Amino acid sequence: MIKFLAAYRPLIDLFLLQSGYALSQYIVLRAGVFSIASAGLAAIGAYVAALLTMRLGLSPILSIPIGAVAGLASALLISWPLARLRGVYQAIATLAFVQIVLSLNLYAEAVTGGAMGLNGIPSLVGTWTLLPVLIGVGYVVTAVNANKLGRAFEAMRQDEAVAASLGVSVTLNQSIAFGLSGAIAGLYGGLEAFHSYALEPNQFGFAFVVATLSYVVFGGRRSVLGPIIGTAVLVALPELARPLAENRTLAYGVLLMLVINFMPRGIVDSLLEYVHRRRMARP
Amino acid sequence: MTTLVLDHVTKRFGGLVATNDVSLAIPPARITGVIGPNGAGKTTIVNLITGMLPLTAGAIRLGGRDLTHAAAHEVGRAGIARTFQNIRLLREASVADNIMVGFHRHEAVSVTASLFGLPSARRETARIRVRTQALLERFGMQRFADHPAGALAYGHQRRVEMMRALATEPDILILDEPVAGMNDVEARELGDIFEDLARSGMGIMLIEHNMRFVMRLCANIFVLDGGRLIAEGPPDAIAADPAVITAYLGI
Asked: I need a labelling partner for B178 at 20 to 30 A (CA). Which of A23, A71, A124, A277 fits?
């Protein structure tokens, strides 16, 4: 067990980090907001946290939470114009936001290091920080699902008019979901900054958007376990498919297409639904 | 005790007048019928009341409160609940979950408590679950509690919608063709429930095609045709009104 942990430590850390991003993506989709802004919000959190420590000497114990707050604040700020958009228009607008953050990081070279990024960030975050944080964030997301907010989110996701007719303010609740997503993305941006020595703008680009979206689509959009399992499988897959050498990405693509076609709700939700149906069928 | 009042309400879609200078009142503790042939503008009126469509002219008030320009969720919060003519359930969610959303208006728990799953949020959820159970029993639907709502039979789906609307504990309940496609026995069962609700003080606006059903339940009836009000009165008077007979039989 210890040997396994030692050998696969980088992979486990990657899973713990990516799961956080997956939950940030999950929570907006859960509320019926088709936002892919998590990449930009994570970049904001990462740069804020790293710069506060590197330039101002702030302890990461402070700068990482401040990064999360920066993510939250940015999310709330863009949730205001976003509230007028729906569906694919939200996706396009948030993709534009991701591009804007990326460009700003490239152009503000004096502050962010431009394309060279930031190097020599103290590496202080390891598995034993990432694991409890993921458990904590997982708890919050689970609590949201089980209470008033989760019920409102579920209603909005399935039918906005019905939600409104029951007194659910769609604008308010979408902002809450978006803010929560921003806080989680910002938090994990900060954790990643202090985990991997270096930051560069393109690590929060289009590839990030595609990866986090696939975790949720692959795993499932309803249960909290969906994005976590989705991340686990998709992070482990390139390792498992190592014998395929350069065809590894092909295996990734094929698996994703199979799941989207035959389990459009994602593996976890499809499985839970199957079990539930079996249980209901029994008298 | 709050009365819903429509005061000279008009709605135009471009050149088409869907609702023309309609004034009506839905008093508490009574079932008020709104009838009319297809295309008379009944559902448009419901959409105007519930803030899903903006009015062109006129005013809508609930008790002392002006709801003319209120957004859909504000109308819901003010105490007006509705069912939809073409049933709109959260099809993927269970029957119980569909009803639990209805209590949203009465949930006082803070965002923070809900976010961190604090005891206050959990207690509230538990309370709502108990009240959901009571509603399920009232409509004889306990055994369907965990079924996905979208998989139920048509009549049962209508009941789920009604339970969800009732969960908001509204002052005014708008039922848009609640017994469409049901047989007389089922309709009678629901009619009894509506009478019970009215006795408890709720104002009910009943939009329905089933004339026998309307005549039996309603204290007062408004008749619409071509977007305008053509008659108002108790069931006997309406049945004998020549304008109503013309509108319905096209003579």
From this structure: A277
- B166 to chain A: closest CA residue: A166
How many domains are there within chain A? 1
Q: Which of B90, B116, B172 to probe by mutation at the A interface, max A CB count within 10 Å?
A: B90
Q: What is the pLDDT of residues B138-197, one digit of tens each?
A: 999 999 999 999 999 988 999 999 999 999 999 999 999 999 888 889 899 999 999 999
Domain count, chain B: 1
Do B146 and B95 meet the contact criterion of CB atoms below 8 Å apart? yes
Give the count of beta carbons closer than 10 Å to the beta carbon of residue A177.
26
Q: B194-223: per-residue pLDDT in tens?
A: 999 999 999 999 998 888 899 999 999 999
Instruction: State the Cα–Cα distance between residues B179 and B132, nearest whole angstrom.
Output: 22
Is the ipTM beyond the 0.90 threshold?
yes
Q: Do B84 and A154 touch (CB under 8 A)?
A: no
Residue A159 contacts B where some CB pair is shorter than 8 Å: yes
Among chain B residues, CA nearest to A175: B111
Q: And the tokens for A45? A: 């959190």
Any B CB within 8 A of A152 CB: yes
Alpha carbon of B62 to those of B33, B45, B59, B65, B83: distances in Å? 18, 15, 10, 5, 18
Residue B105 lies in a domain: no
| Chain A nearest CA to B187, separation (Å) | 24
Identify whether B103 is part of a domain.
Answer: no
The residue segments making up the domain with residue B221 are 1-43+53-62+171-251
Contact of A22 with A212, CB cutoff 8 Å: yes
